[in-house]
Amino acid sequence: MSKYSQYEPGCDPLSPNRNISPITSEIDTEGNLLVGGCKLTSLAEQYGTPLYVLDEATIRAACKSYVNALNTYYPGKSLPLYASKANSSLTISRLVASEGMGLDAVSEGELITALKGGVPSNRIVLHGNNKSEKELKLAYQNGVTIVIDNQHDIEQLSEIVPEDGVPAQLMLRLTPGIECHTHEYIRTGHLDSKFGFDPDQLESVLIQLKQMSWASLNGLHAHIGSQIFEIEPHRDLAGVMADALSLARKIGHSVRDINIGGGLGIKYVQTDDPPSIEEWVKVVSYSMKEACLSRNLELPRLICEPGRSLIANSCVTLYRLGSRKEIPGIRTYLSVDGGMSDNPRPITYQSSYTACLADRPLAQKDEKVTIAGKHCESGDVLLKDILLPSPKSGEILAVFGTGAYNVSMSSNYNRIPRPPAVIVNNGHADLTQRREQPEDLLQYDLIPDRFMEVG
Length: 455
Ligand SMILES: Cc1ncc(COP(=O)(O)O)c(C=O)c1O
What we know:
By secondary structure, the protein is α/β, with parallel strands linked by helices. The chain contains eleven helices and 23 strands. Helix 5 packs across helix 6 (151-160). Pyridoxal-5'-phosphate (PLP) binds at residues 83, 86, 104, 127, 223, 226, 261-264, 305-309.
């Protein structure tokens, strides 16, 4: 056996977000790719394709990186939350909770998955820019912290919390005036964002909440973007949050938590170069500490909400190669048995991925091909112009980095059932999500009686 990462220049198994493949990826003596001790072609045989394969060791390593780095670099209390929008399931909820993490949910579905998965309710926060009464009630009744996003939340909660009830545990989301994309960021007074309170609304909403006996404001929250490679914006964010903390405490709120959101990027392809989890945590921790010390503020508990960087690189999606179309001088299309319904990121964001053949990942890559999905959409292309070793129909293609925003953004377009997911560790594979069947997709269909009339 040899470690696969040694054949991936620039990858870093010490920080899963910088390692394109799961950190347990190995090559056996026959040249097959294994993840979590399981041969990928055997998993494809046993469970069928497409198949999401999640590596438990990679997820645990990422959780430990966040927990340990916060304990090392932040002198106050801290709590990393898993942003479950990246990939929500009972098993993942249980796994992150067992690593001492909390969880961020944005809907009733994500919330019940976390609660039933065993995440302690005092480690869950509920986000959302248009929470329903049902979602707010569920959160309140379970003692989940609710992130107030707008006046509508305040109005609904003032009706929901009974007069003699325990106060709702709240955070307040602000729009920090920092907007970030992978390679650029801006600072501005007003952001065009549907989330949170603008900086110039902050004082009045803090005063408003202080007058509400049902409200217990424990924290302030901001999130500046996703797949971010820069660290500088987080230094700026610490200053914005410390100013807000100072104002909230002056108004009389005993704010305990500062939640700086998620956003750390990952390595999808060789040219991506995100900071490691440890490096990111080090900078956000020092920045928060410095911002508080320079304002004479008691250190808050530092919360962050990684999604992508915690889960994306733990997963490989397996597809079976099917038809081939060669357009001389233009392109060769190879189609797989999945596509935009199990991974909508390429068609939505033009995202790039890395892939290899599961039975000969190290073979000489001598042919340029484009991997197309099977959906009725010309744009349904998973990987454009990648090099593979003369791939043949029937072979298994392994696409890396598919753990975040794939299954959670999946659809049944063309009435294609969702793939199953297995979690692998030490040579064992366990199903965490069953394969949908075409018949499952009919279960919510109804035919009105009048359509049943003959003729
Ligand atoms: C409020 C909030 N927190 C956390 C995250 C997770 O971000 P990421 O997956 O980039 O870490 C998001 C993602 O959009 C978010 O909106």
